[in-house]
Structure formats: structure tokens, C-alpha cells
Amino acid sequence: MQFSGALTALVTPFKNNELDEEAYRAFIEHQISEGIHGLVPCGTTGESATLTHEEHERVIEICIDQVKGRVPVLAGAGSNNTVEAIRLTKYAQKAGADGALLITPYYNKPTQEGMYQHFKAIAQAVDMPLVPYNVPGRTGCNLLPATLARLAHDFSNIVGVKEATGDMIQGSRVLESCPENFCVLSGDDFTALPLMALGGKGVISVTSNLVPGRVAAMCNAFNKGDLKEAARIHHGLFPLHEALFFESNPIPAKTALALMGRMEAEIRLPLCPMAEATKQKLLEVLRQQNLI
User: Fold this and answer.
1) Residue 178 C-alpha from the chain's centroid
2) Which whole-number Å values give the CA distances from 37 to 51, 219, 248, 290, in the listed order?
3) Catalytic residue among 24, 91, 116, 133
């Protein structure tokens, strides 16, 4: 399985502190109708850190059921506990996900060898496509290109990486050192187009929660060789990319989706509702983008 194009890191709708299944299914349907290339439930944007195990499994289950094979589902299944990551990944495989997205072990601060052994254990426990997710700004550790290349060469089911360092030098080294068919996806909307220009395959996007069609169109234009159009879309989306990080993700994304009428703005502690001053700034961007 190759993952490419625009994949949405889905938010998880809540209502009265419960999963809002109706809103979630409608949201997934809208994503597909707008031409998104893939969906990622239970990532950081989906508030996976505050989902119970039962909720985590249900969010993946609903996504797979609603998608019905129309686009790939790359299910978030990572943990800073290797045994737990294996359990979640096995569940994702059993549920019918097309692959599993695996965050690097956060807080523990493993060595490079520790990270290698972590992903090795998962790769040996399942036979589904696996995509490590490297975001040092959130995890406190950096999966270096040499370690990632070692994993990619040693385990055929480690098929790609969500590269969210924002560092094009590191991105270049990953692309250079990993196998030719290795799927490098940007984990930052800001760097999606530059990373694709270096050889990346697409983006796991926050912005596509709001405008899936536009993010997909950027990837489509790039893949057709229309770099001018891809750049035009990229620059047009840039104010949204910035606005969705006025506060910690996914606070602005959920607030924006609520203002657009797609779901409640409800978010779980320790994340909290958006401050009024930044909400006003977000509103201004949404109006400029003709989204409200």
C-alpha cells in the first residue's frame, strides 16, 4: 500500500463529552465528496491522547465503515509503550485499516537504538503497512534519517514516514537514504509543497479538515506537473495554515469547523476553548477565505 496525495488528519467530534458519531460520519462523507485522497483517524489532530481505548477503537471502526474502501484509511495506533502500540496496531489491522500511523515514543526520550527496537517490535508483530510519525516538537525525540532508513531497509512493511520536523534538510536526507518507493508524507501543511518538490508523496493535513478539496487540488496539480497552479493554491492556503496554529492543534481547527456548522467546538482537557482574542483573528481569516 502506497499512501500519497492529501490525507486528512481527522478531528474527532464530541458532544456532551461523548463521540458524536453522526457528525463524524457526515464529516467523513464530506471529505470524500470533496476529493480527499485518504483519511487518518486517531492522530494528534483527532485528540488521540484523551480518547479511551474503547473510543480509540470505535473512532477507527467508524471511519473504516463509513469509508467502505473508497479511500485509504491510515489509522493512528502509536504509543510511548511498545506493548500498547502493538495492541493498537493489531486492532487497526483487524478492523480493516489500510495502514497504521505510529508516533515516535513521546516523553520516554528513547535513544535512536530504542526507537529502532520499538518500530522493529511492531513491524514483526503485524503484517500491515506501517508509517512512523516523526514530530520532535511534540514528542521530545527525533527519529533521525539514518535510523529511519535502517528500519525501511530492514522491514518491508515500514512503507513511509510522516515527516513533521519542518526541516527540509532532514527531509532531503530521508528521501536520499530510504528506498526509492518509500512514501515520505509531510506532517506540516506549510512544508507540503516543498517536500513534494524534493520527492515527497503528499501531506497528512490539518488544513484539509476545513478545505479538503483545495488541499487535494494542490497535490493533483503538482502530480500533473502544473507547478504554477500548485504554488498558487499553496500560497492561497497559507493564511489558513497559520490560523490553524494560532493555538495548539486542534483547538483552532475544531473552532473553525464549529463556526462552519460542521460539528460542535467541544474539546477535551487539558486543551480548552479558544481564547476570544485569537478566535477573532481566526474569524477574520475564515471570512477572508470565504468559509463563513
Assistant:
1) 21
2) 25, 9, 25, 23
3) 133
Of 91, 116, 162, 201, which is the active-site residue? 162
* Contact in structure between 196 and 234 (CB atoms under 8 Å): no
Q: Do the beta carbons of residue 183 and residue 131 sit within 8 Å? A: yes
Q: What is the pLDDT of residues 4-43, one digit of tens each?
A: 999 999 999 999 999 999 999 999 999 999 999 999 999 9
Catalytic: 162? yes
Q: What are phi and psi of 159, to 5 degrees?
A: -100, -10
C-alpha cell at 211: 478545505
pLDDT digits (tens, 9 = 90+) for 205-224: 999 999 999 999 999 999 99
Is residue 133 annotated as a catalytic residue, yes or no?
A: yes
CATH hierarchy code of domain 5-226: 3.20.20.70
DSSP letter assigned to residue 40: E
Range list of β-strands (E), 140-181: 160-163
Between the alpha carbon of residue 159 and those of residues 11, 93, 195, 268, the distances in Å are 24, 15, 17, 32
